[in-house]
Amino acid sequence: MGGVNGQQNGLRRTIGLRTVISTSAGLTFASSTFLVVVTVGMLMGGNGAWLPICIAGVLCAIAAAAFAELCGLYPNAAGIRVYVQRAFGEEAAQVVALTYMSVVTLVVGAEAYVLSYVLHTAIPQIAPPIWIFLMITLATAANFRGLKVAGMLQDIITYTVVVSIVCMSVAALHHGAFHGASLIHPGSPGSLFTAVGIAIFLFVGFEWVTPLAEEVKDHRSIARGMFAAVILLTVVYSLVATAMFATTGRTVLFGSAAHRVPTPHLAFALTALGHAGEWVMIVTSLFMSLTTFNAGLISVSRFIYASARDHVLPSQFAHISLKYATPDIAVFTIYVIALIVSMAVYFTRSFVTLINLAAVTEAIIYSFALATVASLRAKDAARERPYTMIGGRALAIVGSVLFFLVGLGVVFQNNPAAWGAGILLVVIALGWFAYVRKVVLPRKEQLKLQQKQRRTSRRPQSSEEL
Amino acid sequence: MSTNEELSHSLRTFADDCNGNEKLRVMNRDWNRIIHIHADDTQADYTLTSNDGTVVYSEGAPPTCDLRVSATCEILTQVFYGEVSPNEPYNEGTLRVDGSEDDVLRLDFITAMLWEE
After folding, report:
1. Are A126 and A120 in contact (CB under 8 A)?
2. Is A215–B98 a contact, with Cβ atoms under 8 angstroms apart?
3. Is residue B117 included in any domain, yes or no?
4. Residues 87-146 of A with CB under 8 A from B
5. What is the pLDDT, as a whole number, of residue A5?
6. Is residue B34, in this structure, part of any structural domain at all?
7. Residue of A343, A379, A33 whose CA lies nearest to A202
8. With an 8 Å Cβ cutoff, are A10 and B81 in contact?
9. Is the pLDDT of residue A10 over 80?
10. Residue A321 and residue A116: Cα distance in Å, rounded?
11. What is the tally of structural domains in chain B?
């Protein structure tokens, strides 16, 4: 049928390559990524942040190849949950998906924290907690109404962000005292390894474009779009990292371990380009966060709904608003959780822990995706694959091990924000593991049977009634 | 093994059930979509058109559509008679839905409200 091998003939609304790239890259751009750029830069000697970013980009390109193969194999909006289920069974799939979505919720909290300080810089009369409340309430209202950043709007936002960051970086490098030699100043191998793991955060979410597999004009666009997005992100972040450290003092960007600067991108823009630059960066940051909030809150609320439909979470979460045709209880639940997390981040200032948590989780998710490719090459060898990843099973296994190791590299650092992230991830994953094993799996078959019994077939008793 | 006649009947029944459900009519009042149903094994095509909350069944493929649902005749018949949840074949990869994520989700809402409340 159409869509498997080529053109989605007949579909009225389809998405082209440009929008696939903008969606993939746009989901990744976030205000909190600048904190990671600074963390990576601080781990490197001289002005060498571009190196771990490029290495992370290469690793993510391998992950992109894995996701391209998987979404061609199973074009399903449930994405990683379905892939892992086919390879490693339902228990693993549920634990991976629930852990991933929990971490996405926490990242929305970190993003809200950073953006609240950005907006506080623009309008100092409004305190950051009020901004947090306003932003999450606004994003939830849009989610509740089913409003989504997509299509042309996504194109405009993403490409505006790219142009803005590239122009500011080039202008800053042009005006600043940039020394090419500092680019190849090496850090220690251990620091480089850790920096690569943390830099994975800069690519978090590029694979969320795979649900678009069911609405693209050409199925190959998903693979091409993810690769193009990874290259775009690598270039943009390498450039801005170089510009930030070439023009702005390390202390200005970083602060101290105890008091990290929440908005290093504003500090860079102000130092390198003055107040005009700072305002451009504020607007850019707002654009970056807009897609993060929108995609994050929508994805998690729809995931809660789907999990309730699948008897993984309580059935109340599958309630649908008749007025707006959205899963209202799931939307409201994620609103409350996002508010609590954001306020907790604000009062504890633990945003670095959450960023480390996201980096290690994403590295492990990519490790799972590659392991899934390797497993399914054996388990489901006969199934048609519109796209097969280069390097085959061997690269999938090597890539999986590499991602797992760089993920470990993030948490095995001598600071509480790093190992704290590791402990938090283990607690979340074990919590969901216990829940899935003790609560979900034992009653799921029973609930499915009850549901089946409630269904009344509308099939006529005899063929004469047809 | 279902026949094209059974699939056709299941789709007519589905349309009737949608039209007889007041909640669905309210929810879908501004969801105007053309849905193409295609049976992979028998190559049969049908169309469901949702307009102002009313669902209309017709035979044959539409010139353009917003959603395309495809599977074997047997699976489609079971799904549209309400015998199996569409999630099961969808997650198994034996039922394919092409279209925007929101429209795919809306179809899921419809089946949930029709058979699982």
Report:
1. yes
2. yes
3. no
4. 146
5. 35
6. yes
7. A33
8. no
9. no
10. 30
11. 1
Q: Does A309 sit within 8 Å of B87, measured CB to CB?
A: yes
CATH number of the domain at B77, please.
Answer: 3.30.1050.10
Residue of A nearest to B68 (CA): A11
Question: Cα(A432)–Cα(A428) distance, rounded to whole angstroms?
Answer: 6
Query: B27 lies in a domain?
Result: yes
Please state, in angstroms and as integers, the Cα–Cα distance from residue A408 to each residue in A30, A263, A343, following that order: 24, 27, 28
User: Does residue A451 sit at the B interface (CB-CB below 8 Å)?
Assistant: yes
User: How far does the CA of residue B94 sit from the closest CA of chain A (Å)?
Assistant: 10
A-chain residues within 8 Å CB-CB of B67? Answer: 11
Q: What distance in Å separates residue B54's CA from the closest CA in chain A?
A: 15
Does A171 have pLDDT greater than 90? Answer: yes
Residues within 8 A of B (CB atoms), A 16-55 only: none
CB B114 within 8 A of CB B105: no
Which domain, by its residues, includes B41? 4-110
Using a CB–CB cutoff of 8 Å, tell me whether B82 touches chain A: yes
Tell whether the model's pLDDT for residue A316 goes beyond 80.
yes
Contact A451 B106 (CB under 8 A): no
SS3 A134: helix
Closest residue in A to B40 (Cα) is A1
Two tokens, residue A206: 């590029």
**pLDDT, position B22:** 92
Q: Do A466 and B9 touch (CB under 8 A)?
A: yes
CB neighbour list of residue A111: distance below 8 Å, 6 or more residues apart: A30, A31, A32, A289, A292, A293, A296
Residue B31 CA to chain centroid, in angstroms?
14
Query: Do strands B33-39 and B67-71 pair parallel, antiparallel, or not at all (unpaired)?
Result: parallel
Asked if the C-beta of B70 comes within 8 angstroms of chain A's C-beta atoms, the answer is yes
Q: Looking at the predicted structure, is the pLDDT value of residue A27 above 70?
A: yes
Using an 8 Å Cβ cutoff, are B108 and A309 in contact? Answer: yes
A242: closest CA among A53, A420, A10, A113?
Answer: A53
Is the pLDDT confidence value at A23 over 60? yes
Number of Cβ atoms within 10 Å of the Cβ of A186: 12
Domain boundaries, chain A: 17-442
Chain B contact set for A211 (CB, 8 A): 101
pLDDT category at A178 given cuts 50, 70, 90 is: low
Interface probe for B, chosen from A458, A462, A465 (most Cβ of B below 10 Å), is A458
Above 0.95 for ipTM, yes or no?
Answer: no
* Of A1, A12, A320, Cβ closest to residue B65: A12
Task: Give the Cα separation of A350 and A434 in Å (integer).
Answer: 26
Handedness of CA B88, B89, B90, B93 (dihedral sign): positive
A247 vs A296: CA distance, rounded Å: 33
Q: Tens of pLDDT along A195-247?
A: 999 999 999 989 888 878 777 878 788 899 999 999 999 999 999 999 999 99
For domain A17-442, the CATH superfamily is Amino acid/polyamine transporter I (1.20.1740.10)
